[in-house]
Amino acid sequence: MFDKNVYKSRREALMKSQLKGIAVFPANDEASCNYPDNTYHYRQDSNFAYFFGLDHPNLVGVIDFDKGEEVLFGEEVTIDTIIWCGPQPSLEEQAESVGVKTTKDINRFGEFVRDAVEKGRTVHILPPYRGDMKICLARWFDINICDLEHFVSQALIEEVVKLREVKSDVEIAEMEIAAQTAYRMHTTAMKMCKPGVVEQEISGTIEGIAIAAGGMVSFPNIVSVNGQTLHNHGHKNILREGRMLVVDAGAETENYYASDFTRTTPVGGKFNQRQKEIYEIVLKANMEVAAKTKPGMKYMVMHTLAARTIIEGLNAVGLMKGDIDEAVVAGAHYLFMPHGLGHMLGMDVHDMEGLGEDNVGYDNAIHRSSQQGFSCLRCGKTLKPGFVVTDEPGIYFIPALIDKWKAEGKHTDFINYDAVEKYKDFGGIRIEDDLLITADGNRILGPGIPKTVKDVEDFCLGNI
Ligand code: GLY
Ligand code: MN
Ligand code: MN
Fold this sequence. Notes:
Layout: H1 4-15, E1 22-26, E2 32-35, E3 38-39, H2 46-52, E4 60-64, E5 69-74, H3 79-85, H4 91-97, E6 102-105, H5 109-118, E7 123-125, H6 131-141, H7 154-164, H8 169-192, H9 199-212, E8 216-217, E9 222-224, E10 244-249, E11 251-252, E12 261-266, H10 273-292, H11 299-316, H12 324-330, H13 357-361, E13 388-391, E14 394-396, H14 399-408, H15 417-421, E15 428-430, E16 433-437, E17 442-444, H16 453-460
Parallel strand pairs: 1-7, 5-6
Antiparallel strand pairs: 1-4, 2-3, 4-5, 8-11, 9-10, 10-12, 13-16, 14-15, 16-17
Helix pairs in contact: 8-9, 10-11, 11-12
The chain binds glycine and manganese (II) ion (2 copies).
One manganese (II) ion (MN) binds at residues 248, 260, 262, 432.
């Protein structure tokens, strides 16, 4: 946990907004896996953790904008909890550790919230995303689950996004730690990328690195020789010479700050000519975005830059053709990169997307495009110093998508289907870094995982 003043100043900043009424931040409960007492690894709700810091279930934080008060609802420690979980801080001690003065019994929370509603006060909640939390909220408000949406507050969402999107120095220091852990995860995976190894051996090993660092992975690892499947969570393939391994993985710190990097490594450590050609295009897209990204620029512009570089590169190797700018506008790159350039990063790997993708990635100055090749972009808005965003271009050869577009005669002015046919067995390549937007540009978080062809090969072959 950070110093209590971090949480106090975050709540003070929210208190200074124009909001009226009360904001309710429930902590996540334990989540059962295969029977009630066998729970998944506990993960606090990021918004609760941001404002109230505590890493425990069965708590609700309340900010009363009208009275200028903060309250922590919770339960006194019972002897049963001490027997099973060891000595625990009291509710008051917990509240004190994050600078909250008032505590109340969580068993009275329903009464508290219904009283506020009856008095006509505005009660703001953020969109609930877990089934058990929806049931809890519906019980507290004494309403049908479907009516919870009336309490989901667009105004609170916007205020929370304004605060969480700009990372402070302590948050950046945490994200550096997450990036350092990711460095160890990725370089270990690269060393293990040899014929005969099974994907799950690599996945398990790098997950262990994240856990040993004190947190867990920031999302389920993607470790796949079938990189053309974007979020491939099956890990049963044996690595064979001639394939490449896509590893998209990151760690989160004990304070829940994430990293998210991707590297693509040839099995055995040496790219063949065809792999090298496509890899160099993706690398150029990744590096040009990193070279040009700065505050004041729209993330949509970064995406367009990456799309243009990919089209230009694919034209040069004969997989695409025609006018490059027209192909960008038409979204023809979607055949090869059917995802956006990336997303915001923070306490969630897709930061704050629980508040609604468009609420986080777009604003009044830019709305999501409906054009294929751009509509998939999770974030389009203007970058500010303190934002952390990912830069993750890719090129994939997805046989089903190639067949579909070819059958539809789609973008025949821009795509050389005869040449593309020969790449159906290629797989996919993605390269991802985490960029902190600084006062005049950006910097990549972490120590820099090998990514040029030479560095990847030298690293795999033990030359660096
Ligand atoms: N980790 C999934 C992604 O890169 O968005
Ligand atoms: Mn990723
Ligand atoms: Mn990502």
